[in-house]
Amino acid sequence: MIVSNSIIRVRYAETDMMGIAYYGNYFTWFEVARIHLLDSLGIPYRKLEEQGYRLPVLETKAVYKQSVHFDDNIEIKAFLKEMPTVRFTINYELYVESHLVSTGYTCHAFTNITGQPIKPPEIFMIKLKNIFK
Amino acid sequence: MIVSNSIIRVRYAETDMMGIAYYGNYFTWFEVARIHLLDSLGIPYRKLEEQGYRLPVLETKAVYKQSVHFDDNIEIKAFLKEMPTVRFTINYELYVESHLVSTGYTCHAFTNITGQPIKPPEIFMIKLKNIFK
Amino acid sequence: MIVSNSIIRVRYAETDMMGIAYYGNYFTWFEVARIHLLDSLGIPYRKLEEQGYRLPVLETKAVYKQSVHFDDNIEIKAFLKEMPTVRFTINYELYVESHLVSTGYTCHAFTNITGQPIKPPEIFMIKLKNIFK
Amino acid sequence: MIVSNSIIRVRYAETDMMGIAYYGNYFTWFEVARIHLLDSLGIPYRKLEEQGYRLPVLETKAVYKQSVHFDDNIEIKAFLKEMPTVRFTINYELYVESHLVSTGYTCHAFTNITGQPIKPPEIFMIKLKNIFK
After folding, report:
1. Cα separation of A131 and B15, whole Å?
2. A16 labelled catalytic
3. Core vs surface per residue B11-45: b (16+ CB within 10 A) or e
4. pLDDT of B133 above 90
5. Residues of A with CB under 8 A from a CB of D
6. Residue to test with chain A: of C10, C16, C71, most A Cβ within 10 A
7. What's the CATH code, domain A2-132?
8. pLDDT in tens, A94-131
């Protein structure tokens, strides 16, 4: 299993008039954590795009257990639990002061620039095979 | 079952460098459709908040079948399929030129201003009982 | 002078914990009005992009006279006051129930896909010459 | 003069289909830098709100000199150049790899919860008097 840890600090722009973070913004935080996970693998997403890959989201879910607020520091754990095949899933856990406040996942496939599904880049598979073997 | 139809036009701000709408923005569109569903019931969400109710999201999911693009007109159908209890779910279907491009749901509970779960407003339940009887 | 009128309804996602619309979201609304202005000229921005043009923002300003709130219907007037040259400016006025609540402008130049300044598309100039003559 | 330095990393969500960061997102980054400036003064904005103060934006401007891209690290300098009176201005400079890519400002006033202008909090004025004397 691959795990990465990221910290984001809730922006005022991310709150709504309920006084809490708007539910749609969690998906941007998932992105931050996902980018970080790829960084930690030595495969920055920016590089993948430069090589013609795209990693669109096919499906996503979030569960909100406790509200988060402006200025909260959220620790986001991103998990890749299985060797990717054509599709793969990243799981997320969000913590504020060690309390689990939210969970979620995103499901992805590699595509080319025009959106056609393609095999994952070789470097990606090699790195992951070493980890998941 | 209650159904409402909304149209949103994809904003440039809602696209990303993949040339498609960013996956997190769908949740704002769900909101637009949800607000519209409440309007169609004669219970504007603004009024509910004025009366001390809040309707936070407890869980949400989106499935992306086809990308949507800048300037696309998206028809969003929002469905309330069952008589709400303490929790209730709204389902969404997004169409571009009659093609189903995305589905999703949001799960809600009524709370007071401080986030404590409370019974749905009476007017809400009366209206819905008439529809679901 | 060219004027277009657009209506946007403030989304919950666009509010912040101050209970009003977040100041950065006005620039998305300016975009909505700008797209609408181009539509009204018979030159949809989508078409301009398909022909290889881009219209990045070089400068923008907003003045906030009165707060706007969730569910407000904002009427946005967009003005093109002068025949465009290499650069051109669009002015905006935002009204809620006929009260002027905000003003602003965006300054633009036409560029190609790689961001190099280029002459405006001929159809754009022809249409505008007819209006500004 | 008071200066603070912040770093933000451009999120995918902040890009648009032009392949660059959307112009409206700079105002969120200004906010991040502004919050950081208050932190550096020992007056977290969160605390100000808890004491009943609000700091709405009255006016803002941004100048875009060079595009910024996904994954760019942007260094944001925020400046408070003058002793605040009823209104005050914060200036921003954005740098990518030491190149100035954007400038801007936000103009603010202190208000109470209902939006009425009020005197700045005493602690704010005391701290600033020591710096600007």
Report:
1. 34
2. yes
3. bbbbbbbbbbbbbbbbbbbbbbbbbbbbeebebeb
4. no
5. 11-13, 27-28, 31-32, 35, 44-46, 49, 70-71
6. C16
7. 3.10.129.10
8. 999 999 999 999 999 999 999 999 999 998 899 999 88
D32-43 in b/e form (b: 16+ CB < 10 A) is bbbbbbbeebeb
- Which pLDDT tens digit goes with each residue over B61-74? 999 999 999 999 99
Nearest-CA neighbor of C121 among C129, D58, D7, D27? Answer: C129
- Return d(Cα A119, Cα A88) in angstroms, integer: 12
- CA C86 – CA C58 distance, rounded (Å): 12
Is beta strand C2-9 parallel, antiparallel or unpaired with respect to C57-64?
Answer: unpaired
Measured CA distances, D38 to A11, A34, B21, B28, D128 (Å): 14, 30, 35, 31, 11
Q: Which residues contact D105 (CB under 8 A, 6 or more apart)?
A: D59, D60, D61, D89, D90, D91, D92
User: What's the DSSP call for residue A85?
Assistant: -
Domain borders along chain C are 2-132
pLDDT at position C16 is 98
Query: Which burial class, exposed, middle or buried, applies to B67 when counting CB atoms under 10 A from its CB (0-12, 13-18, 19+)?
Result: middle
Q: What confidence score (pLDDT) does residue B84 get? A: 87
Q: For residues C55 and C67, what is the distance between their CA atoms, to the nearest angstrom?
A: 29
Compute the distance between CA of residue C19 and CA of residue C13 in angstroms, rounded to an integer.
Answer: 11
Q: Which structure tokens are listed for C127?
A: 């249409």
